[in-house]
Amino acid sequence: MADFDNDVRPDLFFTNGEVDNNLKELGQDIPFEEPTKVLRNLGDMRFRRVRDSGPFFKKEDVGRGAAFGDLNNDGARDVVINRLGREPALLLNESSSGRWIRLELLGRQSNRSAIGAVVAVHVSGRVLWRQLKGGGSFLSANDLASSSDSVRRNASNVSRFTGPGRAHDA
Ligand SMILES: [Ca+2]
Ligand SMILES: [Ca+2]
Q1: 35-64: b or e for each residue (b if 16 or more CB lie within 10 Å)?
Q2: Distances 168 to 33, 91, 159 between C-alpha atoms, Å
């Protein structure tokens, strides 16, 4: 879960695939590989699959974990996917990043990474509560505060996407 379009509503991201690759031999008509999906948070507990996120999302894959972080410091959350039998996929989010702030928390009396800290941000009469959490997806950890701008945009395993929007292969 990450807010890919910075509209303060966390969106959903799925990378998936079955555990067994011999499902047909077992008489099960279930695909081993599945497409990666982004679902836009519409509010009111409703989500809609984004159909035009880009070519990467039209391919089927066996994802085994995803980590989120703003790898190129443009305010839009990017994604790295661990894939079974393939190199990791780096997805650069090309959504309009809108307004955003980045907070880097440092624990003094708690753990140094400040995991568990709660932050309240007051915006236009609203209060946005966020808690810094460690970990993330299966065998993956989200970036607590990205500070790297060393993403190579022309690497062969880099795809681009717009969270709830469009994407393009590099
Ligand atoms: Ca969102
Ligand atoms: Ca980014």
Answers
A1: bbebbbbeeeeebeebeebbebbeeebbbb
A2: 21, 10, 6
Which residue ranges of the chain lie beneath pLDDT 50? 146-156, 165-170
SS3 71: coil
* d(CA 129, ligand 1 centre) in Å: 15
| Proximal ligand: closest to the CA of 79 | 2
Task: Please tell me the distance between residue 156's alpha carbon and the centre of ligand 1 in angstroms.
Answer: 28
CA–CA gap between residue 24 and residue 31 (Å, rounded): 9
Identify residue 54 by its one-letter amino acid code: G
The model carries a pTM of 0.78
CA 148 – ligand 1 centroid, Å = 23
